[in-house]
Each structure stands twice: as structure tokens, then as C-alpha cells.
Write a structure and sequence with these properties.
heterotrimer, A mainly alpha, B alpha/beta, C mainly alpha, A: mainly alpha, two-stranded antiparallel ribbon, 73% helix, B: 9 helices, 37% helix
């Protein structure tokens, strides 16, 4: 029982990590508190859903489409809206507004009903001893690892990636070496949006799809990012695992939905007493 | 007993030692100048004395009372006021309201008395006509005066001025020097950071020189000007001073 | 900027509006009275939020905490112990104030500012929501129904809406008065100073922690009073409608639109958003959260183009400086 809870907690933690990775890029690197992050994920889920219903594409292929759609949507939102914000508090309000707009637009277009994708080949679990490992969740976990590694490499080796890191370190410094702040900010935001859109697609085989999903995931994403350390990718990954485990164990040992209480509690504790997160990143 | 005593003060940031074993005493009624190259620790000292930073070790004693580590607003209430090197006017408030904010706590008395005090300060600093202008609309000279006026409104016995001459033209500087001297005549003790040598030499009764967080010289302006260490610090090792 | 003799005109406008609002319900049917009650309720709640958010400059995304505490306190005291909701309202206010002081103190003491303060308050509200959802004392997910006793002033319930209307109108007059007092007082000046430059304020002898906590304590107390009204009007409370994040959004969006840190901003914001929400709901029908889409758009537009809100926009046009 406990082992299964641990395993499913870890796997779910991977999911949370993949959702949060995009946010740590946006939040940790660019100091944009993106409340619309969950909405991006939600839209990514719907992209995968519609591509499954009509052309019958499995979500593991349409995740690329989700990435692209959200990449462009993110770019447009950044270019026309976010760029005009003056400080952190304003950005928060703007992204909150975007979240409200997108979530309710989705509800209007596609109704608040829950939908799901069923792929018989992928819904099974395989067993190691009496440990049940759910396949789609395992795939999501692997995706999270690949995404984290991929982004890490991207940031370390490519010019764009290095520019992003430069800006994160010091805007003036980056400017003085000729980095186009606007362009790179736009690209970071778009990549972050794309990543979480793809994460949404990956999650569809085992998570139901609805406009309200965004709010749930954005809050978790914030907790994970702050927990792991803003801007710290491995921190975000392990932060996701911790939250996943915490939630799983909490659900097992605590009555009702009280494990949520503890997630918020930990979040506040970190904000107050260790704003740089467990693994150390930018201070919140 | 000195008005302000700094004993064995130490402060480092990361690996950088900003203040290194600093001892300093300021007597009541003095005007003491604080000079040194950029990065010598002058503003850091102000931040430590006024409570914006906590020292790693050492003591700060004001009128016999240990004020080390007290929060800035407490230090202000004890009688120390400071200005900031980069002025911080309240941009959306009028000049009048800016100064009034400083005046509140020292008299629990009525609005009328407080407002009168603010008018006095405005007149003293030549800001009377600008009293309805917003902080963000003032010229740099007026902002410096405003910064000073706000600090004065708190009724300090010790005033820390951080480069109050910065950005002022010679005429404005002249006026400011007069104001500072008059403040001193009225009984306020002053510790003044300044880069303008002419000003600081004529204004101060005593000068303290910092370099890399340490006191390297102390004495009257003439003594300090002749001090070999000071000359070396400002002009490099070549030694000869050309006029 | 020329300063016009605004004050003489503004007293006239305010008086006229109040008079108009006072006689309105006589002509309105039940539906429109209901609309106006909600407009006035959220104007009141927004004004309470405004003391911390607009005047204090600390945006709370979790004011539903205080609304909920007020609502649950008076309701539980009434349904389980037979205590009049009026008394319950005051007790709820006190409880809410204590919680507000606690939240404010630890957040401000540990340097949470701006967006991080907002997120922390949101987390607190969610903690209360989840607790109320899981604890039998608060009725869990089922919430608490208030038994209908017919029109009874001591029981703070009425069969005709018009009574509620005048009560919430009185609440609004009260809070306009309180806000005005604060604005002109030392507290108002200090909060403004803290908002504009906290370091400069500290250097001038202002205990910034104390005054920020003072702002949140006043704000939380007043918000809770509105929570009791909310409960007594709806006759039903549950964790979602009390502590839910949507409620927090409804509360702060009015002052943001109307004008942060102004006396009439929240009222104006509510006057605009109230009817707009109703219209949006009617037009796009079906799903009940439609007006939130409007709110989203409003937030984006206001933050970018109207940072001082509607009041600020007009003040600029007529050349008024505060």
C-alpha cells in the first residue's frame, strides 16, 4: 500500500515538475509571475484532445502541436500584453486577467464538462512484484525528465539559452553585451508556455480535461517553483517530486482533502523562511 | 561622553569586508566630514548607524545608549536623521506633505502646530513657493533641500548627510553650505559625506578619512590634507601633488 | 496643473447620488433591488480591501479569508448557539481582525511584498477553504443553511429585499466615512509614504511594520462585517462561496477598476462591473462564470491603460492633484 502510494506520488510528482518547469523559466528567469500558466496547460490539453478526436493522433505526437500552439500564443500574449506591464504586481494582475479570460473563454467554447481521452494500449499498468506502475504516468514522468534535461542543455549550450541566463543574472549586464532583451524575453515566455502546453498533452491519457484544470495546476506549479528555488531547474524537478510525494502520502494518511492544506502551508513556510527554496535559487 | 561612538565596527558582504574594525567618535556640536574614495564604506557606515544594516560585530552608541541593530525608525526616534545619496522624495506627495510626514512623530500635538513647523522648515530652506509641487516635479536642488527638510522635520540631534552637494551647481552649493552651517549653529551635530573637497574642507571642523572600510586618517582639514596616506589614496603612489 | 474648486461640486454630486440611491428601491422591482444589493455589497467589500490594497499598497489576493470568517462566525453562532447575527457580526469582525493581524504580521515581518504577499494571502485563503471543507464543525462541503424565520431584525433576516438594501447602503455610507477619515489622518499619510518609499519612510521614524499591520487589521475587521451580511442575505454558506478565490477576485477587482486608494473608487468600480456582469451573464448565457471573462479583460485593460482606475482617469482630465 505504502509503496504504491510512494510510486504514484513520485510519478505524479514528475507531472508536477513538467508543469512547473515552464514556469520556473518564466518566473525564475524573467521574474514574471504567470498566473495564466495553468491556462496554457489547459489549452495544450484541449489541443491534444481535439487532435485525438478528429485525426486520431495520440497525445504523444500531438504534444508537439500543443507546444507550437502555446509557443505562438505565449509569444502573442507577451508581445501585446505583458510587455506593457511595469512591475511585478502589475504583471500578476495582468496574468490573472489573462487566466480568467482564457479559462472562461474555454468554458464558453467547449462547456465546463469534463472530457477524457481513452487509449486502451496505454491505460494499463505493469507490475513489478506487487508495485503497480501506471504506464501513461510513467511516460509523463519520463517526459518530465527529458524536458528538464532538455531545457537545462538548451540553457547551457545554445546562444539563446545563454542569453536567457544572462538576463536572469543581470539585465544591465546583458544589455551591455548587446543582448536584445525584448526578443529574448519574448522567446523565454513563449518557450515556457510551449513547455507547459506540451505537458498538458502528455497528461491527457490519465487526467480529465476541463477549463477548471488550469487553476488547480497553476497553484501547484507555483508551490513547486518556490519550493525548489526560482530559476533552479533541478530544484523545480525535485520540488515537483516532493509535492507529488507529499500529496500522495497526505491523501493516504490524512482525512478528506486535508493534504491540500499542507501543500499551502509548506508554500507559506518557504515564502517566509526560505524564499530561495530548498535547493537555492532566486529569492522570492 | 561623545554624542556618537562607533566601537570596533565590522561589516562584510559575502567575502567583501566593507567596514573593518572601525572606531569613531563624534562630539556634540561638531561638523565632521567623512571622506574617502568610492567604495570606502562611507554610505555603509551611515546605513549601519541609522539601522538599515546590522553590523557583524561592534557597537554603536548614541548619547550613551547602545543603538546597535535597532530598526531605522527607532534610531530616528532616538534623534538621528539621515539623507540618502540618491534622493528619495515621495514622488506623488506635495513638498508640504513630504516634510509633514517627518514632522508627525515628534510632536503629538495638533495638526496646526505640526503644519506651522513644516512652514518654518519650508521657509528656512527656500521651498515655500514650491510647497504645493509634487515630489516628482522638483529640480535636483529642490529635491536635495526636500530631503534635508524631511530629515529636519524629525527633530534630530545628529544629522547624517550623504553627499548632499551631489548634482548642485556652485551657487546652490554655496547656499547649501550656509544652510548646513546655520543648522550647526542651532545645535545640530553633523556627519557629512562629501566628495567635493573644497566644500568639505571649508565646512568641517574635523575630517575622518576611510579607505577599504578602515579609518586611515583623522584630524583637522589641514592635517588631513597634508597626511601622506590620504594623499596616496587619492592620487596614487606618485606622491607629488600638483596644483 | 490648475486646481479647480472641485470640492464644492463633489459634495453636491455625492449628496445627489446618495439621495438617488436612497429612493431608488421604491421604484425598483425585486430583481433590480437584488442587483443593487450586490453592487453595494461588493462596493463595501472592495472599500474594505482598499484600505489595505489601495491606501496601504499591499495587494491581498485572499480577502475571501475575512469574508468567510465573518460569514461562518456569525452563522455558526446563530444556528448553533442562538446568538443574534448582529453580535455574531462583531465577533466575526474581531476574529477576522486577529487572523488579519497574524497574517499581516508574519508576512510583513518576513519581508513579503507585492506579488509574493499576494500569493501568500491566496494560500491562506485556500487553507481556510480546505479546512472548512473537511471539518465537521463548519459543515464540510455541505455548508450551513440558515433557517428562515421570516422578517426579524434581531435575527438579521428579512423577507423583503428592501431592508437588505438599506442596510448595505448604510454600510457603504459608513465605510466611505471611515475611508475618508483614514485618508486625511496621520495613518493615511504614513501609509502613502510607506507605499511610495518604504526605506525613506523608515528613516523618518515610521514603524512601517506597525502601520501595515494596522491597515490589514482595519481592513480585515470591516471585510468580515460584510461577510455576515453576505451570509444573512444568501441564507446559505459553504467553503467555496465564502473562501473561494473567485470571491477574492470579485472583491479586489472593483477598487482596481474604480481607483486604488480613493474613497469612491471601489463604489464606482462596482457600479460599472455590477451591471456589466449581469449583461454578460445574460448575453452569453449558460455557464455561470461568463462575467469572469469580462473581468479578465477588464483587469488587463485597466492595469495597462488606466493604472489609476476610473477615478484617477477623471482626476487627470480635470487637472486635479491630490
Amino acid at each position: 500500500m505504502l509503496c504504491n502510494a510512494l510510486v504514484s506520488g513520485l510519478l505524479m510528482g514528475g507531472v508536477y515538475a513538467s508543469v512547473a518547469i515552464g514556469l520556473t523559466l518564466i518566473f525564475g528567469v524573467m521574474n514574471i509571475i504567470n498566473f495564466a500558466h495553468g491556462s496554457f496547460m489547459m489549452l495544450g490539453m484541449y489541443v491534444a484532445y481535439w487532435l485525438f478526436i478528429w485525426p486520431g493522433l495520440p497525445p504523444y505526437i500531438s504534444l508537439f502541436a500543443s507546444f507550437l500552439v502555446l509557443f505562438f500564443l505565449g509569444a502573442i500574449i507577451h508581445k501585446f500584453i505583458i510587455r506593457h506591464s511595469s512591475d511585478g504586481q502589475n504583471v500578476l494582475l495582468i496574468t490573472l486577467g489573462i487566466m480568467l479570460f482564457l479559462d472562461n473563454l474555454a468554458a464558453f467554447l467547449w462547456t465546463p464538462d469534463y472530457r477524457s481521452i481513452e487509449i486502451p494500449a496505454f491505460s494499463k499498468s505493469f507490475f513489478i512484484g506487487y508495485l503497480a506502475i501506471n504506464i501513461p504516468r510513467l511516460i509523463a514522468f519520463i517526459f518530465a525528465v527529458l524536458l528538464t534535461v532538455g531545457l537545462y542543455i538548451f540553457l547551457k549550450t545554445t546562444i539563446t539559452g545563454k542569453s536567457i541566463r544572462a538576463i536572469s543574472d543581470s539585465i544591465e549586464g546583458a544589455q551591455s553585451v548587446g543582448i536584445n532583451i525584448r526578443r529574448i524575453s519574448l522567446i523565454s515566455f513563449a518557450i515556457g508556455a510551449g513547455c507547459v502546453g506540451a505537458a498538458g498533452a502528455v497528461v491527457t491519457p490519465f487526467h480529465s480535461i476541463s477549463p477548471s484544470v488550469g487553476l488547480v495546476f497553476v497553484i501547484i506549479a507555483f508551490v513547486v517553483v518556490v519550493l525548489g528555488g526560482m530559476g533552479n531547474f533541478w530544484g523545480t524537478f525535485f520540488g515537483g517530486l516532493i509535492v507529488g510525494l507529499g500529496e500522495s502520502l497526505g491523501a493516504m494518511y490524512l482525512p478528506g482533502s486535508l493534504q491540500q492544506f499542507f501543500i499551502y502551508f509548506i508554500f507559506i513556510l518557504i515564502l517566509l523562511f526560505r524564499p530561495q527554496g530548498i535547493l537555492g535559487g532566486k529569492r522570492a | 561622553m561623545a554624542m556618537l561612538e562607533v566601537q570596533g565596527l565590522m561589516k562584510s558582504f559575502g567575502g567583501l569586508m566593507a567596514i573593518h574594525h572601525l572606531n569613531l567618535a563624534i562630539e556634540e556640536g561638531e561638523i565632521v566630514g567623512l571622506i574617502g574614495p568610492n567604495g570606502a564604506g562611507k554610505t555603509t557606515l551611515f546605513n549601519l548607524v541609522s539601522g538599515f544594516l546590522r553590523p557583524d560585530s561592534g557597537k554603536i552608541i548614541f548619547k550613551g545608549e547602545n543603538i546597535t541593530g535597532l530598526k531605522p525608525h527607532v534610531v530616528c526616534k532616538k534623534g538621528i536623521a539621515r539623507t540618502f545619496q540618491i534622493v528619495k522624495p515621495f514622488p506623488k506627495l506635495t513638498t508640504f506633505r513630504n516634510i509633514r510626514i517627518g514632522a508627525y512623530h515628534r510632536s503629538s500635538s495638533s495638526r496646526k502646530i505640526i503644519d506651522k513647523k513644516v512652514e518654518e522648515i519650508l521657509n528656512f530652506l527656500g521651498l515655500a513657493e514650491k510647497k504645493k509641487m509634487l515630489g516628482s516635479d522638483l529640480t535636483i536642488a529642490d529635491r536635495k533641500n526636500l530631503e534635508l527638510g524631511r530629515a529636519l522635520a524629525t527633530g534630530p540631534q545628529l544629522l547624517l548627510l550623504d553627499e548632499i552637494m551631489g548634482g548642485l551647481n556652485p551657487v546652490e552649493q554655496e547656499k547649501m553650505v550656509n544652510i548646513v552651517q546655520r543648522l550647526n549653529q542651532e545645535g545640530i551635530t553633523l556627519l557629512v559625506i562629501e566628495h567635493n573637497m573644497r566644500v568639505i574642507m571649508s565646512l568641517s571642523q574635523r575630517i575622518v578619512v576611510l579607505n577599504y572600510g578602515e579609518k586611515i586618517a583623522e584630524g583637522s582639514p589641514e592635517e588631513v590634507a597634508r597626511n601622506q596616506n590620504v594623499i596616496k589614496v587619492y592620487l596614487g603612489d606618485q606622491g607629488n601633488v600638483r596644483d | 496643473m490648475r486646481k479647480l474648486p472641485l470640492y464644492r461640486y463633489s459634495y453636491f454630486f455625492i449628496g445627489a447620488t446618495l439621495a438617488l440611491l436612497s429612493i431608488l428601491p421604491i421604484f425598483m422591482g425585486s430583481y433590480y433591488t437584488h442587483i443593487f444589493i450586490l453592487i453595494l455589497l461588493y462596493a463595501y467589500l472592495g472599500s474594505s480591501w482598499n484600505i489595505l490594497g489601495g491606501y496601504g499598497g499591499q495587494f491581498s489576493f485572499g480577502h475571501a479569508t475575512f469574508l468567510g470568517l465573518g460569514a461562518y462566525t456569525s452563522t455558526i453562532l446563530f444556528m448553533r448557539f442562538g446568538i443574534s447575527p448582529w453580535i455574531g457580526m462583531l465577533l466575526g469582525g474581531v476574529l477576522s481582525m486577529i487572523v488579519g493581524i497574524f497574517i499581516g504580521f508574519i508576512c510583513f515581518r518576513y519581508g513579503l511584498k507585492g506579488p509574493f504577499f499576494a500569493l501568500a494571502t491566496l494560500a491562506f485563503a485556500e487553507m481556510f477553504r480546505v479546512t472548512a471543507l473537511n471539518v465537521p464543525f463548519t459543515g464540510k462541503a455541505m455548508g450551513i443553511l440558515i433557517t428562515i424565520k421570516g422578517t426579524s431584525f434581531p435575527a438579521f433576516q428579512f423577507q423583503e429585499k428592501i431592508y437588505y438594501y438599506y442596510i448595505i447602503l448604510a454600510f457603504n455610507v459608513f465605510i466611505v466615512f471611515v475611508t475618508h477619515l483614514i485618508e486625511k489622518s496621520k495613518l493615511g499619510d504614513y501609509l502613502e509614504a510607506i507605499k511610495e518609499d518604504e526605506d525613506a519612510a523608515e528613516a523618518l521614524g515610521i514603524d512601517t511594520l506597525k502601520y501595515k499591520v494596522m491597515a490589514i487589521s482595519i481592513s480585515s475587521f470591516l471585510t468580515a462585517l460584510g461577510g455576515t451580511f453576505y451570509a444573512q442575505y444568501l441564507f446559505y454558506i459553504d467553503p467555496d462561496i465564502c473562501f473561494g478565490v473567485h470571491n477574492s477576485i470579485e472583491i479586489f477587482i472593483r477598487p482596481i477598476l474604480g481607483g486604488l486608494g480613493t474613497v469612491y473608487g471601489p463604489f464606482l468600480g462596482s457600479l460599472i462591473l455590477g451591471p456589466l456582469s449581469e449583461v454578460t451573464r445574460g448575453l452569453l448565457g449558460g455557464y455561470s462564470g461568463m462575467h469572469l471573462m469580462l473581468f479578465g479583460a477588464v483587469l488587463v485593460v485597466v492595469v495597462i491603460f488606466l493604472p489609476k482606475g476610473v477615478v484617477g482617469f477623471f482626476e487627470k482630465k480635470i487637472g486635479y492633484s491630490r
